[in-house]
């Protein structure tokens, strides 16, 4: 007779949910199990690789061939009972399994206990549940049959573990498991967990991050070497002390158990105090673990030195408060300071706010370049600081605008005196890039609390006074008064009507044709006109800046794009598929929706991208970044032609030719003024035209007013022209009629 062999079998789990708690275990009499065991004993012996490691039962006193099979079965059951092993069995499609504990001393037979998998899974800790679910999926896919797993069956009894062994004993035609059986035992102190605990202990000791073990009262129980190095103290002097003696953090005053048991990983900031040295900012992370021997919960506090991060945060905060070019407080910092100081003004005590704008800065910036413009701003800041008192505040509002806050006390005349000294100091000549330059300023003055008690009102009134100083001829000082408010209200009223005209699309649009050397129309430029019932014919030089300065640049530009696409489609239907140019402001170029607006307009009117031409001015490049260039390159990649308008208004334009491959360069009308009388203007223009030709760019001369200018431009190599001599702005219907002749 073959000896009975017992194999080691691997783990099993089921992807089921639980409905409640469970209890274990139920004992049954050995004799009552014999019949049930016999009914399942005819399955073939295991013949896989694991069988080679099995152990055989060897008879002690009598030959194996005279011992009957029933005796072997009886001995096997007695061995299981002596080892305090319990059996388990599962049959598909049950969602529960039979289990029980064998007891050779029992003299009665109990029914096996049926344990519901849903109940078991719900009672387990989530980590154990996931392990069983993953394991069952592997078994279900046929990736393994054997079961040998250590699990924690009850989340409330952390010291109880089960060792489950067994195997899938039968699969159906689709290889799905049908039957599984095996043994299980209760283990109070599993060897596997001791090994894991040893690994964790080594990881704790070797960690490069400072770590401590504390109890529920934040008392230090253990530290690693990294912590003692950070504190510079031996562990013997640290053990038993409260963590609050070394770390200052709000979290150390909270309930440790509640914090550490949170499902989310939480990082807490604090300061680690080292005796004789500067405090070290640290990040504190808490977790918990349970001792298997006692079930007592301890907590691990992991520290990380975040000094570098804090330095970066301070630098970023500094950048957020300070203008990087001038190192002055920026707009946000100025507003915060005024918000703090204004409510604290004592009776009879006042502040004066000076809003300063540099006259002609844009022209210098365009002519000499941004680097020279930055140099000029730095010089102006030095002069402002040298003129003001140490207790006065100067901030950069933006661009070429500055705000000065003066504590005037009860002297109402002090602000005017300081403002005059500032005008004089700022107007002194300076040399930049080899050029002697003189810059003046326009200053608006308001007094708190006379002209307002809150930051927004005072800055708004100071801005109104500054623009009044510019309107008076610049290089002037204007103190705010109520009449200025009425002027500002008129602008507000005009702005309201302009906004309504844009929304209702009641603006008019005309076109000015472009011509070639044979006086043929080769395109047209769209121009906006506004005839208002309240203000009459408002020139574009008034309403276009008004729209751009008040957040309507994109709305006005989108309306112009729509009308340009409509006109281009009308020209195409008459047999003249000529491009229509539309002006795009610097603000509109930076609008993320611009490309989509252009594509939609082309699709709506069934025109191609090259039937629209986009004209931009040098102002689009005033920001010291590559963002505008990237936007324009993207528009060109979509098929839209891009022209630089008013080229030559600043010498820095030559730099743009190298940086950006425009399709067309429109030469500013200022070149036309002295073209006939000034040979230098002709030489300069001829050089620009030649350069553009070599770069593959077309040139258009704007402002051609006379026949002599036109003939001279032709001689200089200009191929396209625009101006009153050839064609004034006209309605689209007039252009179509002209094209018929």
From TrEMBL:
Names of the cofactor(s): Mg(2+)
Annotated spans, Disordered: 33-54
Ranges for domain GGDEF: 349-482
All residue ranges annotated as the PAS domain in the record: 209-250
Residue span(s) of domain EAL: 491-741
Record-linked InterPro entries: Biofilm_reg_signaling, EAL_dom, EAL_sf, GGDEF_dom, Nucleotide_cyclase, PAS, PAS-like_dom_sf, Rev_trsase/Diguanyl_cyclase
A Pfam family per the record: EAL
Signal peptide (residue range): none
Amino acid composition bias (Basic and acidic residues), ranges on this chain: 37-49
GO MF annotation list: catalytic activity
NCBIfam families: GGDEF, sensory_box
Listed PANTHER family: BIOFILM ARCHITECTURE MAINTENANCE PROTEIN MBAA, DIGUANYLATE CYCLASE DGCP
Name assigned to this protein: GGDEF domain-containing protein
């Amino acid at each position: 007779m073959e000896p009975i062999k017992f194999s080691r079998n691997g783990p099993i789990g089921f992807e089921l949910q639980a409905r409640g708690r469970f209890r274990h275990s139920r004992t049954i009499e050995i004799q009552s199990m014999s019949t049930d065991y016999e009914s399942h004993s005819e399955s073939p012996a295991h013949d896989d690789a694991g069988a080679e490691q099995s152990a055989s039962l060897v008879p002690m006193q009598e030959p194996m061939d005279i011992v009957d099979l029933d005796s072997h079965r009886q001995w096997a059951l007695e061995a299981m009972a002596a080892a305090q092993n319990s059996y388990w069995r599962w049959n598909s499609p049950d969602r529960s399994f039979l289990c029980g504990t064998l007891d050779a001393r029992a003299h009665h037979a109990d029914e096996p206990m049926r344990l519901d998998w849903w109940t078991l899974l719900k009672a387990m800790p989530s980590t154990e549940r996931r392990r069983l679910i993953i394991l069952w999926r592997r078994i279900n896919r046929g990736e393994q049959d054997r079961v040998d797993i250590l699990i924690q069956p009850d989340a409330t009894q952390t010291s109880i573990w089960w060792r489950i062994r067994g195997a899938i004993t039968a699969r159906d035609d689709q290889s799905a498991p049908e039957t599984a059986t095996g043994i299980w035992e209760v283990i109070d102190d599993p060897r596997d967990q001791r090994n894991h605990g040893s690994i964790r202990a080594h990881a704790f000791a070797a960690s490069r991050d400072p770590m401590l073990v504390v109890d529920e009262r934040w008392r230090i129980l253990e530290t690693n070497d990294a912590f003692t190095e950070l504190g510079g103290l031996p562990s013997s002097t640290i053990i038993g002390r409260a963590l609050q003696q070394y770390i200052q953090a709000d979290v150390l005053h909270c309930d440790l158990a509640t914090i550490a048991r949170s499902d989310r990983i939480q990082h807490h900031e604090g300061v680690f105090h080292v005796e004789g040295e500067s405090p070290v900012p640290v990040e504190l992370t808490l977790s918990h673990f349970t001792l298997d021997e006692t079930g007592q919960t301890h907590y691990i506090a992991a520290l990380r030195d975040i000094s570098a991060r804090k330095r970066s945060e301070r630098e970023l905060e500094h950048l957020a408060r300070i203008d990087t070019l001038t190192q002055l407080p920026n707009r946000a910092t100025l507003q915060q300071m005024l918000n703090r100081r204004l409510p604290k003004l004592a009776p009879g005590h006042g502040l004066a706010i000076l809003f300063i704008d540099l006259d002609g800065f844009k022209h210098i910036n365009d002519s000499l370049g941004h680097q020279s413009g930055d140099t000029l701003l730095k010089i102006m800041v030095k002069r402002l600081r040298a003129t003001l008192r140490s207790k006065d505040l100067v901030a950069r509002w933006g661009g070429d605008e500055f705000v000065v806050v003066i504590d005037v006390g009860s002297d109402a005349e002090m602000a005017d005196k300081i403002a005059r000294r500032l005008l004089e100091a700022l107007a002194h000549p300076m040399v930049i890039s080899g050029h002697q330059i003189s810059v003046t300023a326009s200053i608006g003055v308001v007094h708190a609390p006379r002209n307002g008690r809150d930051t927004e009102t005072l800055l708004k009134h100071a801005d109104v006074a500054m623009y009044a100083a510019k309107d008076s001829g610049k290089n002037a000082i204007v103190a705010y008064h109520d009449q200025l408010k009425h002027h500002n209200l008129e602008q507000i009223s005009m702005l309201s009507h302009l906004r309504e005209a844009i929304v209702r699309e009641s603006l008019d649009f005309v076109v000015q044709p472009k011509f070639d050397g044979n006086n043929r129309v080769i395109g047209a430029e769209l121009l906006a006109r506004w005839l208002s019932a309240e203000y009459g014919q408002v020139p574009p030089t008034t309403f276009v800046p008004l729209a751009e300065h008040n957040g309507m640049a994109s709305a006005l530009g989108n309306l112009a794009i729509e009308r340009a696409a409509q006109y281009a489609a009308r020209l195409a239907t008459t047999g003249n598929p000529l491009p229509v140019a539309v002006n795009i402001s610097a603000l509109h170029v930076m609008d993320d929706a611009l490309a989509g607006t252009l594509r939609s307009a082309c699709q709506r009117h069934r025109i191609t991208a090259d039937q629209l031409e986009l004209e931009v001015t040098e102002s689009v490049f005033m920001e010291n970044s590559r963002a505008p260039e990237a936007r324009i390159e993207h528009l060109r990649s979509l098929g839209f032609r891009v022209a630089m308008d008013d080229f030559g208004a600043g010498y820095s334009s030559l730099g743009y030719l190298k940086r950006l491959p425009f399709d067309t360069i429109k030469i500013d009308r200022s070149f036309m003024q002295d073209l006939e009388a000034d040979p230098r203007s002709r030489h300069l223009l001829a050089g620009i035209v030649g350069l553009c030709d070599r770069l593959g760019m077309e040139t258009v001369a704007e402002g051609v007013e006379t026949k002599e200018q036109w003939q001279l431009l032709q001689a200089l190599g200009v191929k396209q022209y625009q101006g009153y001599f050839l064609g004034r702005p006209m309605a689209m219907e007039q252009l179509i009629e002209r094209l018929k002749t």
